[in-house]
Amino acid sequence: MSGGSHSYDVVVVGSSNLDLVATVERLPGPGETVLGSEYAEHAGGKGLNQAVAAARAGADTAFITCLGSDHAGDTLHSLMVAEGVASFVTDVDAPTGRALISVDGNAENSIVVVPGANERLGIGVVDAHRDVLSRAQVVLCQLEIPLDSVQAALAIGRAAGARTILNPAPAAALTRSLLQLVDVITPNQHELGLLGGASALLDSGVSVVIITLGARGMRIVTRDGEIDVPPFVVRAVDTTGAGDAACGALAAALSQGIDLAGAARRAAAAGALAATRKGAVPSLPTREEIDVLAGA
Question: Dihedrals φ, ψ of 107, to 5°?
């Protein structure tokens, strides 16, 4: 899809996976075969999840990603189109990313992720879409693509005046030069620990740290102090995708001019709603649902 001179509320740069999910009575041991009772394929990858989450939350959203020239790539591209996400897809000579997931009767899982095409999202791909990134209100990245590409995307967004958001997942060590390009970072407690804590992130140049605390809500930390965002109490069925729902809703709200505390409240509501439904993309809430729960 061509962007022309169109500007976007949110531009997401990140990963796309097809999740292959087997339901088993128990997870197999080494060398063991077990029979599964159910099989399903779901769209996944943090980038795709967050792009769809932002679009459903009401943002005019573009997504820069890499797919393989295969059935999985066709499936994911069709989903982007169906969700109204402007898709800037680079087809590469590698299989579309896959996650092979086994889930047992106690909801324990074992996951193997094969990044495939996501590893090919290099600086050249980011640079090829400089015009799209330069017309964003918010640029949102995660860490399932090469780190130098994340840094390049954030730099282009920052130079054009966009607000930059980084979801530092899966956890990785981040350089000061990358962190200096981040306006808002959204770690969970595990990721926050690996990054040295909120004070270290603020000292590295990040403006806002929003710590996601699961059932305990969120905490906003800035140089001016802390604000606790209380949780929305829901009956959780499946927390898959809840963090991605929160990130997408946060980006959408900030792009629409909602203040930080209000945007975090909407993010917490989106995450809570996603936890009440199974799957990642199928669980992502709409703007209207977020409005009702957040009291907009």
Answer: 70, 10
Structural domain boundaries enclosing 153:
8-28+36-294
**C-alpha span between 256 and 137 (Å, rounded):** 9
d(CA 173, CA 183): 18
State the CATH number of the domain containing residue 101.
3.40.1190.20
Structural domain count of the chain: 1
Q: Note whether residue 3 is domain-resident.
A: no
Dist. CA 140–CA 54, nearest whole Å:
10
Rounded Cα distance, 283 and 53, in Å = 9
Question: Considering the domain boundaries, does residue 1 fall inside one?
Answer: no
Is residue 91 among the annotated active site residues?
no
> Does residue 48 sit within a domain?
yes
Quote the pTM value. Answer: 0.94
Residue 107: which of 188, 27, 20, 213 has the closest Cα? 27
Of the residues 127, 244, 259, 291, only one is catalytic, namely 244
Q: If DSSP states are collapsed to H, E and C, what string results for 100-155? A: EEEECCCCCEEEEEECHHHHHCCHHHHHHCHHHHCCEEEEEECCCCCHHHHHHHHH
∠ CA 202-199-150 to the nearest 5 degrees? 45
- Give the three-state DSSP class for 289: helix
Residue 4 has a pLDDT of: 55
Q: Is residue 244 one of the residues assigned to a domain?
A: yes
Cβ partners under 8 Å of residue 202, min gap 6: 209, 221, 222, 223
Instruction: Tell how strand 225-229 and strand 218-222 pair up.
Output: antiparallel
107 touches 25 (CB < 8 A): no
Helix (H) or strand (E) holding 48: helix 46-56
Q: For the segment 38-79, what is each residue's pLDDT rounded down to a tens digit?
A: 999 989 999 999 999 999 999 999 999 999 999 999 999 999
